[in-house]
Amino acid sequence: MWAFIHSLSWKENFRSSTLGSFTERSHASKTVNATPLTIEAAKGARWKGAKWAAKKRPRKLRPSDKFRKPPSYAVDPIRDLKDPPPEYTIVPRVESFSDIEINSDAAQVS
């Protein structure tokens, strides 16, 4: 229906809406050669996933961004130590809770 109304000129639409059935040329008696509507919605394929993220990332435009120097401070000071502390401490397995010695003030009260 929209294709037929859209294909008429604005003058024919105005005449039929204002005068109604008093006009000699109404829409019911007139044959209209309408072309099919073309839908133009998509302009191209969508960027998905990593391509979209890479497209949106900030660009390195300044020389200070392009040619970075290493920082003047220690980035990971624990790894720079000669003898770093151990990452994991192995605790011996305890068979029961009665073998554990509690040296706190709360245990001495009871």
Verbal overview:
The longest helix is centred in the N-terminal third of the chain and has 10 residues, at 10-19. This protein has helices at 2-7, 10-19, 50-56, 63-66, 105-109. The protein is elongated. The protein has five helices and no strands. 0% of the residues are buried. The model has no long low-confidence stretch (mean pLDDT 73).
Characteristics:
elongated, mainly alpha, 110 residues, 5 helices
Compact summary:
With 110 residues, the protein is mostly helical. It is built from five helices and no strands.
Q: How much of the sequence is in beta strands?
A: under 5%
Report the mean per-residue pLDDT as an integer.
Answer: 73
Q: Which spans of ≥5 residues are poorly predicted at pLDDT below 50?
A: none
Structural class: mainly alpha
Rough outline = elongated
Give the termini distance in whole angstroms: 90 Å
Task: Tally the helices.
Answer: 5
What is the string of SSEs from the N terminus onward? HHHHH
Give a count of the beta strands, DSSP E runs of length 2 or more. 0
* Major β-sheet annotation: none
| Structural Rg | 41 Å
Helix content: 25-40%
Biased composition (Basic residues): 49-61
Region (Disordered): 49-81
